[in-house]
Design goal:
Helix content of chain A: 10-25%
Shape of chain A: globular
Number of strands of chain A: 30
Number of helices of chain A: 10
Radius of gyration of chain A: 24 Å
Oligomer: homodimer
Distance between the termini of chain A: 40 Å
Largest sheet of chain A: 6 strands, antiparallel
């Protein structure tokens, strides 16, 4: 099974756990059987491999998410990195070319495309396999998953099938309707269009060559910025006569708001939290080191992270975006491919950060123009390289770096350090990277 | 006017803004005319001086609060420090002896005692002056303020006056009643006993000499720990036949819970906060550097500090104490006489702290047995003394101190530093103080 997971968007709707660089699919919120928490990305990857241990999984995403994917999945999944955002048609074309040229998937094999973030159970992955098998038959150029609606949603487009068989030709597509129109569609037997579909690799490759014109994956990647923004639906689906839809009646939830996300939580709280007995339908997700105490609340979600604190009526939580747009604040925490960082203190001319490097990992060899830095190792062992000079480091060591000086840390064990930055114009963009020679 | 302000208690009911070392009277929550915020202590001191610029103000309190008082009032108010807590009779006796022996108040002058924390307006201080003047007349040994009740409270004792004049002999005292009994008292013309009273200095001095037996302030201070815990009401008031009550009909609010405290706030939020239009009767008090977003809430208080986050229905907030008692966490921030500190990060064998020293102030010269420390100066100028050696310091300087080494910082301007502590048993009690020679 070749799966392309479309991993999009910034995560304003799940602020403060998502921010400009951590999208919602990376929030660790689902309890696993081993009592740990996994993110949507980790959950869906685990579910795919359970359904098909030999699946080829490719995540189509932006550069900004690569660190988070490496942090959460290691090197297990392939990544088709979009140099910039150009909507779904270029993204799917690029990922398909990546499958063909990099992953060496043959032109006759089926490819399944689905968004990374619906909350689904194992039956969904069985359905994906069937979707791929149907596409491989070649009865149609595209086979869409039609999800049996559970309510007249305004959030999805609808597919009207020609008949009521499990696999049916598509009669028509309908744009996102209002509730009453959605009710009418459902009475006609309409299905949700969840953006899940399968095709033979060469179908999309040919379409892409025809519409964009390119030699191979690398050439498409190189000129990605020049491509027109256009959706796969508009560029391909709406113009394709040979389309089938396959029904899926299992669970398929879009966890895009705090309201829907908390419905999928196994327990009422994650992190340090206390609630009194009068709390009803209250969820606390607390990524801070200090406790949250909730008393006498109903239908409320409380979410706290180094970015801020949300306290919202659950229904109201879907209207969060314009408020989060107003917040003008630097990123306060991030997962990186090598570990994570968290801002501890911000002053006009200084910033204090806690850096955690995973064992065996290192940050880039880099320098800053406008700030001095001091590292104070608080735990772990490793090696620092400062202007080409190596030194072994461990808890208690203090390393000073003037502006312009090149530096990195290589962690032998997990290594934590406090970094104090000093300068008149401290800015994440003030960073030049070098190879470590 | 000689005023003794009784400043008691730890502040669990106003967690997370109060903690074991910051009592509620030090929370800066009241907006002043200059758009700054002041605490209960600062507000009441300002109001007293406005009513009587030459007032002698003495705060009777424990050692734990001395730093906070100096931080908020400087050296303006006298402090009668109780070496340990021994209830109100020993506290008032000690403060009265302090007034006599240290502040040289004569035995014939009136002294007014009142709690530091009721929320009152200027008319209250006019009433305090009248209370003192009435005590100075010598018609009675004690003159109590009788507060006209605004509702049948279960929180106060009641005073039944003998007549309905402004100044009346006391007929009887009543213990804290239930609501129905309180209603009956109020129908009889009862007044709240707010613990506000005046006496001629020698009256309490004589009582204290009679009941405790001591030579002067210093000798009473030295044997304070040996004194019996006994309330002023029980030791003095209940046995005194010559008592008058003076009516007070102005505002007198006890701001002991989040519910009552938020009623006294001029605006719906302090600190970084956003609310949507559906929030009704919501108050946010946010001492963190990151925003709180409240959506669709009614009758809720949200309070955030480095200690934690409270989200509570306002009515429910008075039941907070047992939950806060369960929190087993070190102090995360504190105001000191020399400035303040805030814990930024806690690990098993390290702690990172931000220290702010006010201009002209210094911390104690001290050492630690079990931890090394490093200071990173992030702003300001001053002088560090490390094992007797002086060095000028400014932003960018790094000073390392091994366990056992004596150290202090003297701030010339406001000085901020990041302190990284490293050791196997980091503990606030691991501190030995020295004189700076």
């Amino acid at each position: 099974m070749n799966i392309i997971l479309l991993s999009g968007g910034s995560g304003k709707r799940l602020w403060p756990l998502s921010n400009d660089i951590r999208s919602k699919q990376f929030i660790k919120i689902f309890k696993t059987q081993t009592e740990e928490y996994e993110s949507m990305v980790q959950r869906v990857y685990r579910q795919i491999i359970k359904a098909d241990p030999s699946a080829t999984v490719t995540i189509a995403t932006s550069k900004a998410q690569v660190s988070s994917i490496h942090n959460q999945l290691g090197e297990k999944a392939g990544i088709s990195v979009e140099p910039c955002r150009r909507d779904t048609f270029p993204a799917i074309a690029l990922a398909t070319a990546y499958l063909h040229d990099v992953r060496k998937v043959s032109e006759d094999e089926a490819v399944i495309v689905c968004p990374v973030d619906p909350y689904v159970e194992d039956d969904y992955f069985t359905a994906l396999k069937e979707l791929g098998a149907q596409a491989a038959k070649g009865q149609a150029n595209l086979v869409l998953m039609g999800i049996e609606p559970t309510y007249p949603s305004e959030k999805y487009g609808y597919i009207i099938p020609a008949d009521s068989h499990k696999v049916s030709p598509v009669s028509t597509f309908k744009e996102k309707p209002d509730v009453r129109t959605a009710e009418a569609y459902i009475r006609q037997g309409a299905l949700w269009n969840g953006g899940v579909f399968a095709y033979k690799l060469n179908y999309v490759l040919d379409k892409a060559r025809e519409l964009i014109g390119f030699a191979d994956y690398q050439s498409l990647f190189d000129r990605y910025e020049t491509l027109e923004k256009i959706s796969f639906d508009y560029a391909v689906v709406e113009k394709e006569p040979a389309i089938q839809v396959m029904r899926f009646a299992g669970q398929w939830k879009d966890l895009g708001t705090w309201n829907t996300l908390t419905e999928a939580m196994e327990e009422s709280s994650i992190g340090k939290a206390m609630m009194d007995e009068d709390c009803q339908n209250v969820h606390v997700i607390n990524e801070l080191d200090v406790p949250v105490l909730a008393m006498g609340l109903q239908d409320v979600v409380i979410s706290a992270s180094p970015e801020g604190i949300l306290v919202s009526d659950k229904g109201q939580s879907s209207y969060i975006k314009p408020f989060v747009d107003k917040i003008d604040q630097q990123i306060m925490f991030a997962d990186k491919s090598w570990g994570s960082f968290r801002v501890l203190d911000v002053e006009t001319e200084s910033m204090t950060i806690k850096v955690t490097l995973n064992a065996g990992h290192r940050m880039n060899y880099h320098s800053h123009k406008n700030r001095d830095e001091v590292w104070h190792v608080i735990s772990g062992k490793g090696r620092a390289v400062v202007d080409g000079l190596n030194q072994e480091i461990e808890a208690g060591h203090v390393i000073s770096m003037k502006a312009g000086c090149r530096h990195t840390v290589i962690a032998e064990t997990e290594l934590k350090l406090i970094e104090v930055q000093l300068g008149k114009d401290i800015n994440v963009h003030d960073k030049e990277k070098f190879s470590l020679g």
